Structure formats: C-alpha cells, structure tokens
Amino acid sequence: MPLFDYFRAPDADAVRRVLDADDGSTPVGTAFDGVEAKGVDPTVVLGQMVAAIRQVPWSSDLVDDRLVWPAGGEEDADFEGPWVTELDTSVRDALAQADDLPRVAQEWARIEEHDVDVAHAQEFIESMVGLARRAREAGELMFCWTSL
C-alpha cells in the first residue's frame, strides 16, 4: 500500500532543501508538522474528504497538486518515488474551514476506496483539519509526501 504523509511548510524551496538533505525520507515528525495518512491519496481519498466538507460531488479536480520534489521527477515515467506534491491553497482552506466533522466523518467513512470506521474517520479528519488550520494561521502551504 502506498504511503502518504501530509505536512505543512513555508514553501516548496524549504521542502526541497529538507528532502535533498535527507534522501527523500518523510519529513513528518522530523522537519515538519504533519499527519501520517497511509492510504489517503490526494486525488481520490482526500478529494472525497474535501467533497464531503464542501458538500459537493467528488471530482478528480477537487484537489489540485503539483510536483515539487524531486527536480525533474515528472520527466521520468519510471520514477517510483518518493516524491512530494504541493496542494493548492483551496484544499488547505477547505480543510481549515471545515465544520460539522461528525457529518463529514459519516460520509467519508462510507467511501469505497478505504475501509475505516466512523470514529477513526473522524479522528483522522480532525488531525487533517488541525494541520490545515495551523498551516493557514502560519501562512504556510500543505504538501503530500508519497512513497510506493
């Protein structure tokens, strides 16, 4: 199962410096404040969380992200990671503004892409909302570290 860690950082340059210095290891818990998310990919699973928060249907463009590390990684079709993408600020802000988390957890726990009970879903959503709020308050961006 692919690993996904979400974290906050001042900018992509700070992320690149840390990842280059540490051979691409996850920066969560060492260099940056973050949340370990295991099977929560940005496009589908996190996207469905954002859809539940916004109360809109899921679509693949709800979470826009762009590769920031490694340099040139998008040019190597065989690259298997790890890599880091920067999430669009609209994702950070949607998470930071989330309310009625019990409702969001009820909806998100029912998605077919992962098997999680409502209590665990709410705990994870609360951790992501907290991360997004800290990022927004600090004027930081959110990133996703991925490894296959």
Task: Describe the structure in your own words.
- With 148 residues, the protein is an alpha+beta fold.
- It has one domain: Hypothetical protein yfbM fold (3-Layer(aba) Sandwich), CATH 3.40.1760.
- The chain is 41% helix and 18% strand.
- The protein has helices spanning 12-21, 42-54, 89-96, 101-109, 118-138; strands at 3-9, 34-36, 65-69, 83-87, 141-147.
- A five-stranded antiparallel beta sheet has the order 2-1-5-4-3, sandwiched between helices.
**Silhouette:** globular
State the order of secondary-structure elements, H for helix, E for strand. Answer: EHEHEEHHHE
Task: Order the strands across the largest sheet as they lie in space.
Answer: 2-1-5-4-3
Low-confidence segments, ≥5 residues, pLDDT <50?
Answer: none
Helix share, percent: 40-55%
| Quantity of strands, as a count | 5
Radius of gyration: 15 Å
Summary of the model, kept short:
This protein has 148 residues and is of the alpha+beta class. It has one domain: Hypothetical protein yfbM fold.
Question: Helix and strand layout, with pairings?
Answer:
Layout: E1 3-9, H1 12-21, E2 34-36, H2 42-54, E3 65-69, E4 83-87, H3 89-96, H4 101-109, H5 118-138, E5 141-147
Helix pairs in contact: 2-4, 3-5, 4-5
